[in-house]
Amino acid sequence: MFFALGDETRLRLVVLLCEAGPLSIAKLTESFDITRQAITKHLQLMEDAGLVHRIQQGRESSWRLDLERLAKARQHLDVISAQWDGALARLKNLVED
């Protein structure tokens, strides 16, 4: 999941999908200077990580962000952040003593 989020283009896709809701490849591509094929590859990688889902509507498909999966990523980052805060506080105490 974090590998999928560790790319600037994919992070921008997350932001777009958060702001606008489900979007087609055509709409997503309008915001980038890369090809539809490149956007599709990014979305497929994100789909493999469980971050987005394809919604088929007739001949057109759109992509929707999985907010629950994104919330899980946030929970993991919150745990890591708390651990770092604790480690930095212990380091500060050592340095100041």
What form results from the Cα inertia axes?
Answer: elongated
Tell me the fraction of residues in β-strands, as a range: 5-15%
The parts where pLDDT drops under 50 for at least 5 residues are none
CATH class identity: Mainly Alpha
What's the total count of β strands?
3
Question: What is the subunit organization of this protein?
Answer: single chain
Distance between the termini: 40 Å
Strand order of the largest sheet: 1-3-2
Give the topology string: H per helix, E per strand.
HHEHHEEH
> Biggest β-sheet, characterized?
3 strands, antiparallel
In the CATH hierarchy, what is the superfamily? Winged helix-like DNA-binding domain superfamily/Winged helix DNA-binding domain
Mean pLDDT: 92
Helix content: 55-70%
Please compute the radius of gyration using only Cα atoms. 18 Å
In a few lines, what is going on in this structure?
This protein is α+β, with helices and mostly antiparallel strands and 97 residues long.
Task: Outline the structure in words.
The protein has 97 residues and is of the alpha+beta class. It has one domain (2-96): Arc Repressor Mutant, subunit A. It is 67% helix and 14% strand. The chain has 5 helices and 3 strands. Strand 2 (52-57) and strand 3 (60-65) form a beta hairpin. The longest helix is centred in the C-terminal third of the chain and has 30 residues, at 67-96. The mean pLDDT is 92.
Please tag this protein with its features.
5 helices, about 15% strand, Arc Repressor Mutant, subunit A, about 100 residues, alpha+beta
